[in-house]
Amino acid sequence: MAKIQSIRGMNDLLPVDSSLWQYLERTVSDVLSQYSYNEIRFPILEQTELFKRSIGEVTDIVEKEMYTFDDRNGESLTLRPEGTACCVRACLQNGLLDNQQIQRLWYAGPMFRYERPQKGRLRQFHQIGVESFGVATPDIDAELIIITARLWQQLGLMPYVKLELNSIGSSEARANYRAALVEYLNQYIDQLDEDSQRRLDSNPLRILDSKNAQTQTILENAPSLLDYLDDESRNDFEQLKQQLDAAGISYQVNPKLVRGLDYYSKTVFEWVTDQLGAQGTVCAGGRYDGLIEQLGGKPSPAIGFAMGIERLCLLLQETGQIPEDLNNNPDVYFVVAGDKAQLASVAVSEHIRTALPTLKLMKHCGGGKFKRQFKKANDSGAEIALILGDDEAEQGLINVKWLRQEREQQTIAVDDLADLLAEAFNRH
Q1: Residue 48 exposed, middle or buried by CB count within 10 Å (0-12, 13-18, 19+)
Q2: Helix (H, G, I), strand (E, B) or coil at 411
Q3: Residue 13: what are its φ and ψ, rounded to 5°?
Q4: Rounded to whole angstroms, how far apart are CA atoms 357 and 145?
Q5: Is the pLDDT of residue 261 over 80?
Q6: How many CB atoms neighbour CB 329 within 10 A?
Q7: Are strands 265-272 and 162-167 parallel, antiparallel or unpaired?
Q8: Confidence of residue 428 (pLDDT cuts 50, 70, 90)
Q9: What are phi and psi of 77, to 5 degrees?
Q10: Rounded Cα–Cα distance for residues 87 and 65 (Å)
Q11: CA of 233: how far to CAs of 187, 227, 276, in Å?
């Protein structure tokens, strides 16, 4: 029979890679905890209407990329293509935004988009998202960007990323700019690429980030969005830049940065890299002050960002920023020979795990000759092999053999084992 394969663009995460993911997720969690952000979790499946109302019906995501189906009751459901709308829905449904409450939240998990799979772009991909609700002033914009900068510093990635920044203003300012942009581009409609011609009527601001070289040449003399900003957006943007300057964070203002979702307003930003080829964006976000009202809540300001776990892991690998001690190997491998030793080894193993909870101890299971067990101990990558036979078990002794260092094998009392391992692995 033919083997069943995974769905194209939906990959397995193998044990050899999981330690890097855990390291990244742990680092993100620790940084966000420093800023008092709390984790929230919500379902993978949502009503399709949630994304149509939030992302926008004329966006590529809703038009082409969502995994949407009718359930047995005929209700249209969608595998979440992004997390912000889900987070807003969860907050509204559970009263977290009642009475203009301020919330600082984060989440992590899989998202789904039907795209052409390639390096750094999958159909099931994983994101970490951060959202802040209830603060209208640009100091929260600065805080979120500062959080990302601290994360890059912790991961050793700061030399490989750069921050691009823009303000897309209020809805009225964007409407005025949209009219000016359409008027300008209509002069060159025959020279625009096919996607840009289609977007000219439906979503002309997305033409600004077209990857077509000829379209970008035409855009060089197009009106600038920054010239159409309302006073409030302009003032907020200046304050944001001042705060980033005060924090020592370098940035580049990119007037063509608009982001791909309809709900954005005012501040938008991206962290980009030149280390991953075409998939250069590793973190992106912005303000979406109108989304909460759009989804049925009372008007409330909001801002957030998302970063792709797969791309960040790729970036860590490409730039050699993976910690040397990051592996799945056990610290200690327990070799057991004899029935009495087998029983004794259970109690010894659990005693060590209780005394040294961060130590990774693998006890051999499945029996077999001593020579075979010892080969498994050596192949495991462990630093130390514990060797217990029936005679040692009766006497309360155990053998300790160093597998990676030129040190003599020791025979010690079982009662002294935890202290020896604590000193060997600095786990006091």
Answers
A1: middle
A2: strand
A3: -105, 110
A4: 36
A5: no
A6: 14
A7: antiparallel
A8: low
A9: -120, 155
A10: 20
A11: 29, 11, 33
